[in-house]
Amino acid sequence: MRVIILYELIIIGGGPAGMTAAVYASRKRMNALLITKEFGGQPMWTMDIENYMGYQFVTGPELMEKFDEQVRKFPIEIKYEEVTRLAANEDGSFSVTSDGGEYRSQTVIVASGKRPRRLEVPGETEFTGRGVSYCATCDGPLYAGKTVAVIGGGNSALQAAIEISPIAEKVYLISIAGYNADPIVIEKLKELKRPVVEFMGYTTTAIKGSQTVEKLVLVSNDTQEETELDVQGIFVEIGLEPNTEYCEGVVDFNKYREINTDCRTRTKLPGLFAAGDVTNGPDKQIVIAAGDGAKAALVAYEFLLHRRPNA
């Protein structure tokens, strides 16, 4: 009995890469399905965007709202579900399983992005949502007039500290080493009217409290001396990890568990593509993710075109 393929393309992920792929697939009149938990992706956590072409300045949520509006101008099917498994079938098609069902397609674009990396220290899980946050843009206003800590030394950590400084009473910035951020971001941090208190060379070892966060425990990497900071909020900004667990055994990963692709977004399997921050691409930028999404959709269309009889 012949297996009926319901979709020509399934796109997994609703961030810049996934949404752009959806627009390009729709313009090619592909029978496509977009599966995502929610629209927006990582830009929804970003307040200041100054390097996306066409905008002198825009917030992440504002930019993603524009993406969303454009996607909805096209008749692409969208399912708000979480993908749990991707499988390659013997006939060359793919099966995508989610918490809402199972779908089959001739091609797939993996564009599921990344999620915040956790500290993995005592108290973190217990106080997540009760003082521990991974999104300064989302939760910063909740800590007006309070003392907070931002953990990390990269762009996202410094930008979080900059964003929260005018709101909070005091901001601690904790990093295992020094800064690993762009010079312009470091410059903005140094220019704050209300400077942050820096703890460089410290490792976070525990989070304490009763009903909500009350203390952050640090240890000096040099002296091993322990310090407890009285805080009401903690923003964890120590990087991201790819959402690739559902691809286990299907694609090749690099050491960061990002999906290995070539310059045309192709993985090791014909018909399976990956785009955006989930890939091994060297730079993680919104404009690059969007470009990847466009490229992946066009390459998927080309792939299908050459598979059709008499193409």
Provide structural commentary.
The protein is α/β, with parallel strands linked by helices and 311 residues long. It has seven helices and 17 strands. The strands form four sheets. Strands 1, 2, 3, 4, 5, 6 and 17 form a seven-stranded mixed beta sheet that branches. A five-stranded parallel beta sheet has the order 8-15-9-10-11. Helix 2 links the parallel strand 2 (32-35) and strand 3 (77-79). Helix 5 runs parallel beside helix 6 (183-190). It is elongated, with a radius of gyration of 22 Å. The model has no long low-confidence stretch (mean pLDDT 93).
What layout of secondary structure does this protein have?
Layout: E1 7-12, H1 16-27, E2 32-35, H2 60-71, E3 77-79, E4 83-88, E5 94-98, E6 101-110, E7 114-116, H3 124-127, E8 132-133, H4 136-139, E9 147-151, H5 155-164, E10 170-175, H6 183-190, E11 197-200, E12 202-209, E13 213-220, E14 226-230, E15 233-236, E16 240-242, E17 272-274, H7 286-307
Parallel strand pairs: 1-2, 1-6, 2-3, 6-17, 8-15, 9-10, 9-15, 10-11
Antiparallel strand pairs: 4-5, 5-6, 7-16, 12-13, 13-14
Helix pairs in contact: 1-2, 1-7, 5-6
